Amino acid sequence: xxxxxxxxxxxxxxxxxxxxxxxxxxxxxxxxxxxxxxxxxxxxxxxxxxxxxxxxxxxxxxxxxxxxxxxxxxxxxxxxxxxxxxxxxxxxxxxxxxxxxxxxxxxxxxxxxxxxxxxxxxxxxxxxxxxxxxxxxxxxxxxxxxxxxxxxxxxxxxxxxxxxxxxxxxxxxxxxxxxxxxxxxxxxxxxxxxxxxxxxxxxxxxxxxxxxxxxxxxxxxxxxxxxxxxxxxxxxxxxxxxxxxxxxxxxxxxxxxxxxxxxxxxxxxxxxxxxxxxxxxxxxxxxxxxxxxxxxxxxxxxxxxxxxxxxxxxxxxxxxxxxxxxxxxxxxxxxxxxxxxxxxxxxxxxxxxxx
Amino acid sequence: xxxxxxxxxxxxxxxxxxxxxxxxxxxxxxxxxxxxxxxxxxxxxxxxxxxxxxxxxxxxxxxxxxxxxxxxxxxxxxxxxxxxxxxxxxxxxxxxxxxxxxxxxxxxxxxxxxxxxxxxxxxxxxxxxxxxxxxxxxxxxxxxxxxxxxxxxxxxxxxxxxxxxxxxxxxxxxxxxxxxxxxxxxxxxxxxxxxxxxxxxxxxxxxxxxxxxxxxxxxxxxxxxxxxxxxxxxxxxxxxxxxxxxxxxxxxxxxxxxxxxxxxxxxxxxxxxxxxxxxxxxxxxxxxxxxxxxxxxxxxxxxxxxxxxxxxxxxxxxxxxxxxxxxxxxxxxxxxxxxxxxxxxxxxxxxxxxxxxxxxxxxxxxxxxxxxxxxxxxxxxxxxxxxxxxxxxxxxxxxxxxxxxxxxxxxxxxxxxxxxxxxxxxxxxxxxxxxxxxx
Lengths: 355, 439
Hints:
- Helix content of chain A is 55%, strand content 8%.
- Chain A has 355 residues and is of the alpha/beta class.
- In chain A, strands 2-1-3-6-4-5 form a 6-stranded mixed β-sheet, with helices on one face.
- In chain A, helix 10 packs across helix 11 (226-237).
- Chain A starts with a helix and ends with a strand.
- Chain B has 439 residues and is mainly α.
- Chain B has 21 helices and no strands.
- Chain B has helices at 2-19, 24-50, 55-73, 80-92, 96-118, 124-140, 144-154, 160-171, 177-196, 201-212, 215-220, 227-247, 250-266, 276-282, 289-316, 326-330, 335-350, 354-369, 374-400, 408-414, 418-428.
């Protein structure tokens, strides 16, 4: 039994070199993808990462070189010719690129290459080392063969990859290689698409099933949160013919001051505001067009440069109606002028009806 | 739902004639995809004359179309119900592998329909622009409010999807979101049908599954943005243009022309329609020279109504341009600027669609090595022009729009057209040489 297993193992080991082009191509592809995404991005779908890929390439390079050294009748398999061509062409490019990237990173700051070009330098090193390894393995194999045979010429670029036709369909090996790359690519795309969409389908469908009773209002609230409730409060408490002044779309008020967004929720009311600027002074001015109402808003976006609360100036008010965000309690102040200091940094949201 | 049914009824005979096939699902989906563009454009054209959007005009337009198409083409129609039943029966006789591949596609279709029926319009730009315009049109029958309040914003894109929203609010009982779900499903069926011409059922289903599960399109089938309709109309143009090259039938050229016009009517600011002109020129011979000239002229004329209308609105209101002149922008070009631009293009165009780009490149290499046919060469040229326009357009935008660096998301959304276009290119290239049967 043990002897059979050993013979079987030897049989497989002796033939592993035949898979060298396919294995190296596939794992180089994995390393290439992770170079432009992040280390481990392929492990989500294929359960391999670039480090694992590099180890596999080392193992198979060793197996191939071992075969070339120990087998006196070793011949380069047909499918290694295209790999030799690819390796001899791409290795100098990768070599130069590696030098440029390393120098660039050293001259700027750590993580410069990744932050500027989104090339993961750590993974690129695996690409670089794998290229050198493949180049060395194949060319060393060629050298070993030429040392054994008198008239054997080492092909530098092995253009025969483009001429040799497969008996099956007349396509050159290079064309077959293009098909293999395409299929590998489509496979990865297929797997990533399916896995992405499964989670979306499950999450999306389960939400719908659990909330079949939701009204349109509840669905919009689910999407817009408190902003939707605030806009609903304003639309329920102001007439449709009202003209409402809103803050400029800056600092805390990127939503409340966005006139096209507010206009949607408060249609058909007219919305007026000042155009946003880089200056905080704009927050202390009011629109020039006439208006009957003003939003009383804290602001929903974070910003350290200015306190929450708008308007920032005193206004003569017929009525101030607001609710407190914490408990929803509604309060009304009649004939009480608006003073910003009374409402700044509070949780009070509502509107001011102008005198 | 009502819009789907009326458009199928109205346009089915016409698209049976144009496709030359008695395939119920293909003709029904094309009736919806291209028919809804035709009716919305005619509705806009009627607005230019009567200065109001009246749903009665829309219904009258549909009735005229029904009368015309049935009067002209009724002889071509086989019983659609029988056809539909026979096609469903045919699917039930598929192999287990095909059924296994079809199942997730159907699941995705059900999911997008469920989302389209459940959710109202809820995304930012969808609410503030497309749906708001639709709301105003449906309630007021006029666009005066939009002109008065912010013409610069509200007339930045054509009214296509907003008209659909308006009509949905007025005569349909579903949310406008359902349009996007149906659009997505309809295109998927057309895509499969034409991919099937060149590949086995299984490979066509795999490519269709790749398309329907692509995260960009799965998300956009549940959002009321114009990027998805635009991308799919452009892909339809490629599909029908390749069919025209192969068959040299005028009906295919008409379909390609309609698809391109639909793309322009969806988003006119993107210049991808231009690629049709060099492609048509390359296909011109003594025999079809007049026909091609006609198509190019009609294409240029088609753009005029909306562009003139938009120009008129913007020049008569307090329009403030947000762009800077190109001569000023050229002064920005420095090596550091070019590196920044390259990084931007890489981040928002190359990287999100890396697998698609690699797929295109490997298919092109394969085709070059195996002597491509005429239609395949033109297909490669067409997609290459798309690439060039994307990069050139981004370069131009970076010189003329000061806030260009902030709109990377727009470039990424715009580039989603490469997904169905390149998947169809892979299908059309017969790369696996897998097609053994004619059906």
